[in-house]
Amino acid sequence: MDFLSNFLMDFVKQLQSPTLSFLIGGMVIAACGSQLQIPESICKIIVFMLLTKIGLTGGMAIRNSNLTEMVLPALFSVAIGILIVFIARYTLARMPKVKTVDAIATGGLFGAVSGSTMAAALTLLEEQKIPYEAWAGALYPFMDIPALVTAIVVANIYLNKKKRKEAAFASAQGAYSKQPVAAGDYSSSSDYPSSRREYAQQESGDHRVKIWPIVEESLQGPALSAMLLGVALGLFARPESVYEGFYDPLFRGLLSILMLVMGMEAWSRISELRKVAQWYVVYSIVAPLAHGFIAFGLGMIAHYATGFSMGGVVVLAVIAASSSDISGPPTLRAGIPSANPSAYIGASTAIGTPVAIGIAIPLFLGLAQTIGG
């Protein structure tokens, strides 16, 4: 009963908070046909400032803390990011009318992290004076990068196997129509390799997936670049004065503007989601909560093993429940070009993000308050 009351109280507070109210407001005005537009350049500046602030907070905290305390939560973050992709691969991909490569891309986006959702969770924790490790925000890349890399690798492995099967089938079908080749007359035929290396390439299809370019592209993305820049500055410089005088006071106001933009974006994506299978709707409602509960359970293990705070457990659960809205989509577009963006971006932006912000944050916050007493 305590959990239910805590959840309901947090849910009402979240509805009244600038975070969710601006998100809902954006959806409402977009549904009413408003022509309000926030220039993309301004949105990029806002995202940069929000994630830089989170990175600065984490960097300064890491500088003054014991790094061994971060090891277990970081390892759990990596495991969760990878696991989420495989959950989508063997659940969503099995649903009728859902293409496997689209399901894998969706899993990658839901395994990656939303900086805005994490910022909303940190804001609510501060408002309710729930302590958490300041470096908890630095768990972002430990979950984000493995999820995107895993999705791209798994999708490419699947596509390569599919191509080889199709090629083998086509070869079997065309074998009967081929004319016999005279002994020693192989030089003009492309069916025969000219070297052992070429033979190995033909056997493997030469479709090896290179991991580092994927990691490099993720690190160079605007979201992670801002986050890691903030962490580095907080760790190696002394940015306290600019942090306290500029980044910290503006944080909540900038977050409210970003939520308004995301609300309008979410409504515009709903029409795209109608073009794909209805299972994406079911997945984008259930998956954030399922992923969050997995992370919450692992966070509790870290809590009892290393003293990881209950606030930190909430942060871990929320970033697992979130889905990337900044760095993930362009990375997946480049890494899995055959996947349908309407499927994975529509599922994430139109439903996944509102569920993560409106339900997952108060849910796990209430659960943590109940367990923590």
Q: Could you outline the blueprint of secondary structure elements for this entry?
A:
Layout: H1 2-16, H2 18-31, H3 40-63, H4 68-90, H5 100-111, H6 115-127, H7 140-174, H8 196-204, H9 211-220, H10 222-236, H11 240-273, H12 279-306, H13 310-321, H14 328-335, H15 341-372
Helix pairs in contact: 1-15, 2-11, 3-10, 3-11, 4-5, 4-7, 4-12, 5-7, 5-15, 6-11, 6-13, 6-15, 7-9, 7-14, 11-15, 12-13, 12-15, 13-15
List keywords for this structure.
mainly alpha, 373 residues, 76% helix, 15 helices, membrane, 0% strand, globular
Roughly what is the average pLDDT, rounded to an integer? Answer: 81
How would you sum up the major sheet?
A: none
Alpha carbon gyration radius: 23 Å
Straight-line N-to-C gap: 13 Å
Structural class: mainly alpha
Number of helices: 15
Q: Which residues form runs of ≥5 with pLDDT under 50?
A: 181-206
- Kindly state the number of beta strands: 0
User: Which overall shape is indicated by the principal axes computed on the Cα atoms?
Assistant: globular
Query: Helicity, in percent?
Result: over 70%
Order of helices and strands: HHHHHHHHHHHHHHH
Report strand %.
under 5%
Number of domains: 1
Protein name: Sodium-dependent bicarbonate transporter
Keywords: Membrane, Transmembrane, Transmembrane helix
Organism: Synechococcus elongatus (strain ATCC 33912 / PCC 7942 / FACHB-805)
InterPro entries: Sbt_1
